[in-house]
Amino acid sequence: MCVRHLAFVLLIWFPAVLHAQKAEQPCPAPQLDHGYLVLEKENQLTYACDEGYKPTAEGWWATSTCENGQWSPKPQCIEEKSCLPPTIINGNYFENPNGWYAEHRTITIKCDDGYELKGQPERIRCINGTWPPLPVCEKSPNACDGPPQIPHAVIIKQGYQEVFVENSKVVYECESGYTTDGIATETSVLCSSGNWTGIPSCHVYCLIDPANYNQDNYQVTKVQYLKEGEKKKIRCPYWPGAFSNFRCTNGRIAHTQCCEEYYIDQGRCF
């Protein structure tokens, strides 16, 4: 019986290579010190560790999968007093390539941009297989949340992120056909003391161009822009005290005949 079992084991392991049907490359037979493993599938194994040791994963057993010629994660049994990598939300630290930290090893926590440690130590030490209470990276009071969404605009030259450090700048660009002031399509805003300053708005603007109007009829002396729905009184030089009411409608300028200002204000000038 023992001989047959040994022959079966040799049949599997003698080539020192496990062929995983779903992997692009076969994986070599893993070497596991201080533990034992079972080939659960042709491309997956499960392992556990001897007394006084533990896997490099939460729990007393762990799995590993053959991926492109490598077992991932690598099966390892480490001393129970060693520590697994801690999870630091909104923070980071130097990660040991081995995937674990020996007892008494210290790591230094660095918060992500826009976050800070408030009254907490930045260095923590692995003691008896656990880390002390982990420091918390909190949002800095002068940092800003993500810039607000505004209609008809997007953020350019900047990937999405939830928090920005003070003095960060982002650039809005209006969609085609919209501008912030009749000319500009891009506007930068600044994070200052926890708030974004200079938030723009994108509108359809109409152009009032002096070249398009007889100066004897309408006193248009410079290029002007009106937002959609905005009105502006333009003086009629040939009629003292008279005006024409210009209005931006559907991206185009329309205007009334020349009337006395009273009639324009009463909506009786067409």
Automatic annotation (TrEMBL):
This is Sushi domain-containing protein. Residues 1-20 form the signal peptide. Residues 25-79, 81-139, 142-204 form the Sushi domain. It comes from Amphiprion ocellaris (Clown anemonefish). The lineage of its organism: Eukaryota, Metazoa, Chordata, Craniata, Vertebrata. SUPFAM superfamilies: Complement control module/SCR domain. The keyword Methyltransferase does not apply. Disulfide bonds join 83-126. It is found in: Virion. Pfam families: Sushi. Keywords: Disulfide bond, Signal, Sushi.
